[in-house]
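@channel sequence for tomorrow's demo:
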Amino acid sequence: PESSEDVVLTTPSKLTENTNDFSSGPKDKGNGSNGTNNNHNSNLAPRTLLRTLSKLEALRNLLPSRDKMETPGPETSDEIEESLPLGPYPMVSSKQLKRLQARSLKTVYVHDWPLLLETVLRNQWEKHASGRGFSWKCIPKEVLRAKELFLDASDGKTLCEKRPLGHIPCGMIVWLVTIVPPTYYDSDTDTAGIRRIVMVANDIAFQSGSFAVPEDDVFSAASELARRLRVPFVYISANSGARLGLSVEVKKRFRVALSETNELEYLYLLPEDYEELMRLGVRLSVEPRQEKDGNGETRYVIRGIVGAPDEYLGVENLRGSGLVAGQMSKNYSEVPTISVVTGRSVGIGAYLNRIGRRVIQTDDAPLILTGAGALNRLLGKEVYSDNGQLGGKRIMVPNGVTHWCTKNNYSSAEALLCWLNYVPPTVDPLRCCPRVLALPNYDPVDRDVTFMPKGGEAYDPRHLVCGVGDRLGLFDRGSWTESLEGWAKSVVTGRATLGGIPCGIILVETRMTRKHDPADPADPTSASSFIPQAGQVWFPDSARKTADALDDFHHERLPCFILANWRGFSGGMRDMFDEVLKFGASIVDNVRVYNCPLFIYIPPCGELRGGAWVVVDPSINHNGVVEMYCDPTSRGGVMEASGVVEIKFRENDVRELIRRSNPHLAALDHQRLRDEENRLLPLYRDVAIRFADLHDTHFRMQATGAVRGVVPWKDSRRLFHAKLQRKLKELSVAVSMVEAKEVGSISEGVRKIEAAFAQDHPDIPWGTNDALHMQWLTEKVELNGVFLSGVSLLPPSPAISLPSPLTAVEEVTRLTAQCQGTDALENCFESLFEDENMLKAAMGAMQRIRDRAEKVGKLTFTEAEMASKPE
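structure tokens (generated this afternoon):
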């Protein structure tokens, strides 16, 4: 395969043409009219004839006249040029043939992907510059650089930049891609940050993109590179699954022995064929056999075929598929992963996409395990029309495999770069360091949230995030990107930014939705059905969607906001059978391990009750990262007020309330008292509900410590931005304490920070004044080399082991080793010894080092050697 540098040489004009080729939708040609009156229809044929005749006349005028062709005479240069004979069409290059082959399979040639990404990225830069009013001079000359990597032939496990000698082509291409996103541009300094990704792609023009041992080795090496660099891993999928084959050399030489009854007896090789196969290195198991009949020739009966060293025919490819499946699973657990399904993906190719979890699927790119043709042969009839019926967007979007579905490959590239914006450039298993983005449209943090939900009215929960019309939402305008839109619609998941900080978001649908259960063409008795799902309720699919979203955000190292508005879980027979209990428990599992900031917020007029509260309560988390807040109009409790009244405020209690509130009823006789109570009963039932509702208000939630504080919806943007910044700083300090072995866990570090702040500010609870907390944390980090080393926890924690001198030496050595060159090391020490205490300690240490050197010298050298030893 060609290197990626060959693709970059395309001119800008051709770049645009190639980009237009990626769109798969039909284009309108002409301004045809359907003709809505009879006069137009009657004149249509003559007009068409006249138009055709005029075209023929124009073509005739382009040809030289008969007289001019027959009369010899002096020829001008123009005439000579016109009369030159047409030569053959130019030969089509191998690269163009591969492009045509990929296009016939409804995908993009693999080496065009860097060019496609560069085109999309440059268009994003232009939109960004226009949106912010910047000059186009801010756009870098090189917005993307893709360096193709090759498997090192010496060990077969690592990647190198130069194509090694004897490199054997394979159907897996790897690039280390450097990107300059427009969201990383700093207008103050006129500089733009960069990020890197490892991108792996199937070459569908090579063995149909199938997976064999060489492809598996390249994929495995690329996975290890991404994990070592801590950068996102991108897989461009277009393949035909694990490779299968037959030994070509044996196929050309084997013969068939038939029995006397004309039945197959065995397959064999002649001696000369067997010797030739041995010379070629083809391995097979044979049994020599001397034929008694005929000419008495020796035959080598074939018992098993292994094949040539460079042939990958079966189980070794399956073993390699297991290798890449394990690598992809490890990738997901350590670095952000995403797959772009740009062509058909079969078998292990489909599994790799799902194992990597986040999937961008192009319309004409099915994800299948077995092709439609094979299934039809198995069923004995034409059941499935094409592969799209098995794994196209109508299947993979509603079942939650596909996160984003796009119309063409250009849109897939846009979706890929959009997702990369939210993911930090590098990830750390403990730290949460999202990159603050510069969005095309600036949205100030210090503004009100003007979209206001009304109690009792259903609304689109997305408006809480991005607003609608001139009513603004909580997060930055234009930053919302939804994922898994077609699956489990009673929960909405996506990503947005708050003051430029990327966040994962989980919302609750308040309106009625419908779940579609399609019919199976292979089962004539099945029928399509639609199952209604009420709003504000967790169903099995929406509980699974919530758990998966938390898992994805956690591995992307993103803060998360859950705008919780659930009344509980659906516990009907169908839902219990569909494992709602299992998926609800998965939410608990993912909340427990989350170690980035996680905010639970009950929105205005929202409610959080019963099991829905339980699975997101902050006490589940063991890292001290979850904080819960509520709006003043929100409610929280075990059951809704009406349900509580039915159990705890029965009719007798209501009648007693009536008599207590109306003392004059005591003078009535029994019958008239009963009639009056019956008349007042509906009113006082509402009073009882109102009384029960007062137990679910924000006053009680805050007083009992169930929520950390009350955040009015109108002020939620500025308040949550401050809380998010404070929590990121707090967790950063806590992780530093863990790395310095001052504490044993993040939660212990968080508790130690809160205890230290309480000593300095006993009257201000932690989390109530975020500006003060940020200032205090910043000052502590700047002033203390070892943060909060003298603070004790209540209750006391296990003894904290401070770093030993040996550990400190190792850490300093590790850090100074990162300085490249002598100058950088000298500058490092110069800055280090600006501190007076550090300088004193260093001078004292130098004196002791000199004394020790003199003692060692006296013990080691003789007097003559000491006299001759240089000063």
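heads up for whoever presents: The first strand starts at residue 144 and ends at 151.
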